[in-house]
Amino acid sequence: MKKRRLGKTGMVVSEICMGTMTFGSSCDEKEAHRILNKAFDSGIDFYDTAEIYPVPPEAEYVHATEKIFGNWLKTKKRESILIATKVCGPGHGWFTPPVREGKTALDRRNIKVAIEGSLKRLGTDYIDLYQTHWPDHDFGFEETLEALTELINEGKVRYIGSSNETAWGTMKSLEVSRTNKLARYESIQNNFSILNRRFEDALSDICRREQISLLPYSPLAGGVLTGKYNGPIPPENARFTRYSKLPTERQRRMAHRFLNEGTLASTKELIEIAKEAGISVTALSVAWSKQHDYVASTIIGANTVEQLEESLKATDLILSDDILKKIDEVSKKIPYPMG
To answer: Which of 53, 61, 217, 243 is catalytic?
Structure first.
């Protein structure tokens, strides 16, 4: 497994990161540990979780993922694992998280409470990469970055990163860090796949010029890029099949964002490109994500070891210029299928 430097840090991570967001709900602890062992044996040393996981966030399951990962971590030498986790963003915005009675914020108190909870559940005394799960631009960045810098000075966190951040937010955070001599976000974890190339519009240039690493999540577009939704009958237990039937408007809208005429048409063409190359569309999609110079590590997820094995086929795969050109032609033909 190849390694890449994270931002300007001393941290070098495997170019594939094991995501854990389903552990504790759609993936039980026994299977989660099988997946984690397979990932570790395959050379993955970088693992991503969050205080709010598993997803979809529900009070019944919240915190289960960190606990499951923490139980597995006991079987490994702590220094052999690089852990990334996240503190919830503000609870007054796009949804109310099922932690701290929904009163989450990126202020000093919430950050301090969140880190102590994560450390306890993970069974460790430090986090390698601590990330804000989503921003609060109206609150500003000063207190957030001050609190995160304090955690670094206390030895509880090595480096910090953002997630679901914008171009403006990224540059504003850098300005605050420089002006106030505070730690800066070394990474940004955003949705990025062949079906969602919005990151290339502005954020990719910022990452290159400021040496910030992208940690792409959902390289398979929530499973759409596996091709499983392109059959005549939607898979019954698949995420967006379930989401489309839920009474919650937000989840139905999310299902439509990932599953629509444009994403399915794009996936159909990508399946043919993959077939011509003699690889699966899953391997094609993960390899495409890795093949960007500003990407440090692509986050993959799995509910079964078999799903993980399919994604791992991209480990040493490098797409030719001809394949990359064909992928670009699909993106030009069907631009921004996820909006």
So the answer is: 53
The confidence band for 300, taking pLDDT boundaries of 50, 70 and 90, is very high
- Listed as own residue / partner, the contacts of 238-242 with beta carbons closer than 8 Å and 24 or more positions apart are 239/26
Tokens of 207: 């990452």
Look at residue 296 in the predicted model and tell me its pLDDT: 98
Helix 305-312 and helix 29-41, axial crossing angle in degrees, nearest 10: 20
Mean pLDDT of 202-214: 98
Sheet holding 213-214, edge to edge: 213-214, 185-189, 157-163, 127-132, 82-87, 46-48, 16-19, 298-300
Q: How far apart are CA 120 and CA 49, in angstroms?
A: 14
Alpha-carbon 132 to chain mean position: 12
DSSP 136: -
Which amino acid makes up residue 116? E
> Beta strand pairing status for 3-5 and 12-14?
antiparallel
Length of the chain: 339
> Does the annotation mark 53 as catalytic?
yes
Yes or no: say if 279 and 195 are a contact pair by the CB < 8 Å rule.
no
Contact present, 266 and 339 (Cβ < 8 Å): no
Would you list the DSSP string of 143-195?
Answer: HHHHHHHHHHHTTSEEEEEEES--HHHHHHHHHHHHHHT---EEEEE-B-BTT
pLDDT value for 95? 84
pTM of this prediction?
A: 0.97
Q: How far apart are CA 315 and CA 164, in angstroms?
A: 25
Quick check: 246 pLDDT over 80?
A: no
* pLDDT (mean) for 73-89: 98
In degrees, rounded to 5, the angle at the alpha carbon of residue 259 between the alpha carbons of residues 256 and 263 is: 125
* DSSP class of 307: H
